[in-house]
Design brief:
9 helices, 45% helix, single chain, alpha/beta, 258 residues, 7-stranded parallel β-sheet
Length: 258
């Protein structure tokens, strides 16, 4: 199901500079597309080059501002931060940061080594902090900004099968609330968006089976598929000036599961 035609426009997003991690596929691609449709100037990083370049071409072909894409492995923090600086030098300091990138690879408690733990944290937790560190000086110069961190309902619902992932995603709320206090005096808002089980191509291919479909039907208050564009709409609100007094909050978009 695609997004309906009659949805809100956010005039304050036009011309805003936005940086998105993991913007090439899934929820991230929906976020990048939605922001571009609002007239925002978007830059994003992803490890998936082919999909990211195709996304940029589709957005440009639709007549919206073409995003800037750079291929970055988020485990490489120096490259992430230098890329953010380079993109900001081209677009201008960022008004909005969307920390979306994550990987919910399944694993068992007994199989987790220190190396595996460090690798999962390097993907699912560490980049968010250092992306914030990179964009905040520019936001301070501009007199404010919006930082949007992505969590997951997995830890809310005691989801099993990926304990390092749930650890990382639970920590997002601590990051959000602590930064909201520190950055509030600079008019920088920090919030969390928490998705339910979103039917991205990856989720459908890897994890969705008949049992999963039954879980969705039983646990969601609202029936039907939770789709990437549903999350993108919440991001638009938090990126726009409409959410000017929202900070330190968690906005759950899960059709009522949690």
């Amino acid at each position: 199901m695609s997004a309906p035609n009659q949805l809100a426009q956010f005039p304050s997003l036009k011309g805003k500079r936005v940086f998105v991690t993991g913007g090439g596929t899934g929820i991230g691609a929906a976020v990048v597309s939605a922001l571009a449709e609002q007239g925002a100037l978007v830059a994003f990083v992803d490890i998936a080059t082919e999909a990211s370049e195709a996304l940029c071409q589709r957005i440009a072909a639709s007549g919206h501002p073409a995003p800037l894409f750079r291929q970055v492995d988020l485990r490489d923090i120096p490259t992430l931060q230098s890329t953010i600086a380079d993109l900001a030098s081209q677009l201008g300091d960022f008004d909005v940061l969307v920390n979306n990138a994550a990987n919910d690879e399944r694993h068992k408690l007994e199989d987790v080594t220190q190396e595996y733990w460090d690798n999962r944290i390097a993907i699912n937790q560490r980049p968010s902090f250092f992306a914030v560190q990179s964009v905040v000086p520019g936001m301070k110069k501009k007199g404010g900004g919006s930082i949007i961190n992505f969590s997951s309902i997995s830890w809310h619902t005691s989801g099993g099968g990926y304990p390092v992932y749930t650890t990382a995603k639970a920590s997002v709320l601590g990051l959000t609330r602590g930064l909201a206090r520190d950055l509030g005096p600079h008019n920088i808002r920090v919030n969390t968006v928490t998705p339910g089980w979103v039917m991205t191509e990856r989720q459908i291919a890897l994890w969705l089976d008949e049992k999963g479909k039954e879980d969705i039907k039983r646990n969601q208050c609202l029936q039907g598929e939770l789709l990437p564009w549903h999350l993108a709409r919440m991001v638009l609100f938090l990126a726009a000036d409409d959410s000017v007094m929202c900070t330190a909050q968690e906005f759950i978009v899960d059709a009522g599961w949690a």
